Amino acid sequence: MALDEVISNITEGAQAKARELSAEAEKERAAILKQADDKVAAKRLAQQKELEVALKRLKQQEISSAELEAKRVILNAKKDVLDKSFQVALDSLLNMDEGNRGRMYRKVLEGGKSVIKAPKVYCPRGESKLISGVSGLGSIIETDMEAGIILEDASGIVRLDYRFRVLLESVWDKELKNVSNILFG
Question: What is the assigned CATH class of domain 97-184?
Answer without folding.
Answer: alpha beta
